[in-house]
Structure formats: structure tokens, C-alpha cells
Request: fold
Amino acid sequence: MTTVFLKEKKCFVCGTGSRYPETSSAMSFSGPRDLDSRPAEMQRSSVYLWVQRCLSCGYCAPDISVGGDGLKAQVTAEAYVKQLNDPHFPETANSYLCQAMILEEKQDFASAGWALLFAAWVSDDGGKKESSRECRKRAISYFERARQRHQAFAPSRGEEVVILVDLFRRSGQFNAASNLCDIELQAGHDQHIPDVLLYEKELIGAVDIRKHTVREAVDAQEK
Reply:
């Protein structure tokens, strides 16, 4: 059984000690994942535990006790502090956005893209449509830069394509989503990737920006 507990940690940047939530084991989940890969419960709600924020200096990371060179300058920079306190985004989303800024400096664009996608999920939960859209647009930018630098951000190229298509669709960029679907439907992907892309085409045609699951996509093509 998975449990959540508080663990004492010291911030890598400023040394301030505090307690942060962690899980005792990998969270199990059942049910279909979303088209953008968000898992079902319980893991779905654990997105709020995947980033930690130092309440003293504002350092944001998956593990607050781990870091590298130059972090103090980054977390005190004007742009970072502004993002940390941006009222247009939920608090946890701001933590992910700040984490992405640190990852961008390291040129880890794949991880930065995921941080932005996690921020989008948090925004979805809070009903923040504009911040959800903005986070998805920024995630696309990071993932595209990751692909340019051969940084994989999913287990297969087909899964990367599905994530990008869904990000375009859910951020309202329907032409870009449709064009990418058309290109990739000719690419010879295996497994269920073509089924998912055909379903995405249906959603794009309906101007649908809502959440949908992989199971919905597969079922739609099996009818």
C-alpha cells in the first residue's frame, strides 16, 4: 500500500530545513491514461508531489536537497522570482514553471517540457484554462527543442508525436495539430499510434480541446 509521509530535507541552495511530502513506494493506478499521457488515479493526483519548493529561497526541484552550480544566481534572478509569484498560474504550476527555467539553463529541454506539461495538468485541475493553454504552448516549444537535439521525451517516437499532437489540440492550435497528424499517419508507426492519430483528427475536426483517453481513441477505431 502506498502512503504519503513528510521527510526532513535541507534546501541545496540556502540550507533551510523543512519537511516535504514523499511516497513510500511507486503509486499504483488503474484505468486508461489521457492522450497527453497523464495517468489515472492514484498516480494522477500525485502530480502535486513531483516538485518541491523551498519556502525560504524559492528553489524548485523534484528533490530540494539536490542541485548543481549556479543555482543561487538563478533563483534570485528577477525573471525567476516573478514567475514564482505569478498570480496567473496556480502555486504548484509556478513551481514547475520555475523548475523548467532551471532545466532550460542546463539545456535539458526534454525534462523542461515535462515540467511544463505537469504545470498544465495542475492548471487543468484548478480550472485555469488560460494558464493551461500557456503551459501547453511552452511545453511544445521545449519538446520541439528536445527533438532537435535528439533528447527523447517518451519511450518511442510515436508516443512523442501523440503527446505533441494532443498539446497542439488542447492549446487550440488545430492547424498545427492536423498537419502533424497527416505527416505522421504516413510514417508507418506501429501499435496503436495510427488509431490515436485518427481519433485526434476527429477531435480536431470537432474543435474539441477537452481531455480524452487512449482507450477512447482505440475504441473509436474498433467500432
About this structure: Residues 129-148 form the longest helix (20 residues). The chain has a mean pLDDT of 93. The CA atoms of residues 76 and 108 lie 20 Å apart. DSSP finds nine helices and four strands in the chain.
